[in-house]
Amino acid sequence: MFAKMRSEPGLCRVEPFGAYAASRYEDVLAVQKDAQRFSSEALAVTSEPSWLGSNPVAHSLLSQDPPRHTQLRALVSRAFGPTGLARLEAVVRREAESLAEAAVRQREVDLVDAFSFLLPRNVIGYMLGLEPSTFSEFKRWSVSMGLISSAAPEHYEGIRSTVREMKEYLGAVIAERRRKPGEDMVSDLVRAEVEGRKLTDDEILSFLFLLLPAGMETTTQLIGNAAILLARFPEQLERARADKAHIPRFLEEVLRYESPVQLTFRMNLSDVELAGTKIPAGNLVLGLIVSANRDERVFEQPEQFLPGREKGTQHLTFGQGGHFCLGAQLARMEARLALEALVSRIRELKLRSPEVEWLPGYAIHGPRVLPVELIPA
Q1: Domain containing 282 — which CATH number?
Q2: pLDDT by residue (tens digit) across 301-335?
Q3: How far is 105 from 101, CA to CA, in rounded Å?
Q4: Is the Cβ–Cβ distance between 225 and 366 less than 8 Å?
Q5: How far apart are CA 282 and CA 213, in angstroms?
Q6: Residue 302: partners with Cβ closer than 8 Å, 6 or more residues away
Q7: 136-168: per-residue pLDDT in tens?
């Protein structure tokens, strides 16, 4: 379907929302980079539908345009920079080794529950200084929040309940950090100032509503998709076992070939033209990352899984421009250390079902469950 869209002139109108969908690499890149023509305010529309009511994500960093976006991003970027990541690496490695050891010992596991979700969940919980006893709720919250833009009516009440729970839980965390700051990201946000003004509780809450699911969901899917491809291409597992320097190349191709993030939303605030299509002001515009990453104009043999390919890092999975994913290097580090820990302990990874049960919804792509057999090395 995406190949057909790329071959036809102009943009395609798609449901829901009657959005204009860009499927070619150059058009998706324009949607991601051109904040003047394509505003990030679209997130406020898609994440706060009428049936839901107030959702802090709608007022988060992702829904802001410059200059406000630039100011807010600067506040949290330190935690995701080289110094912050260097401090985190030992924590991530220790967690990855422990989880991989436990999973291989069980041999037959749901790799999502036993490994690919637990690692990013525990890391983001550590970064935010959250109580480990509450981590068990994070997966349900994350999946529920990921369904908002495509939810069926039977999911409405569950999602509303999730938003209420998260507001209560995270609001209490913010209040506690105001009373007693620590050495964690929530405390950093409490102490932070933008142009001499401290952040309000609502502004911090919107950050946390974004960071908690975002810090888990896409990395979980990256690791899960990588595991599927290790099973389907056993020669890749052999190469990774023989030379761990192959793992980053392998992961970049996973990001292109099975992108955890399928699309990005924007809104044109004035009349614009893209790919010869006139888009009246006030419309949603989708950048189909999943299609752009397989555009034959950019990637040779795009339907082939070829780690180390030419232009292998030019995929659009993490976005481009001002909204380039803050957590991109953290996700890469977590996935690299996860695979290093796993492949060093196994000689084969077998899928226990030929059919993968994928997550519902269309924005995030990865296995909902992943029953595997891990053959120890």
Answers
A1: 1.10.630.10
A2: 999 999 999 999 999 999 988 778 888 899 999 99
A3: 6
A4: yes
A5: 28
A6: 293, 294, 295, 296
A7: 888 888 878 877 777 788 889 988 999 999 999
Distance, CA of 212 to CA of 226 (rounded, Å): 22
Could you tell me how many residues make up the chain? 377
DSSP symbol at 294: T
Distances (CA, A) of 56 to 69, 136, 143: 15, 22, 16
Q: How many CB atoms lie within 10 A of CB 115?
A: 26
> What is the number of structural domains in the chain?
1
What residues contact 4, with CB distance under 8 A and at least 6 apart? none
Structural domain range at position 109: 2-53+60-376
Q: Where are the beta strands (DSSP E) in the chain?
A: 12-14, 19-22, 108-110, 193-194, 197-198, 264-268, 272-274, 277-279, 283-287, 346-351, 371-376
Q: In a 3-state reduction of DSSP, which class is residue 348?
A: strand
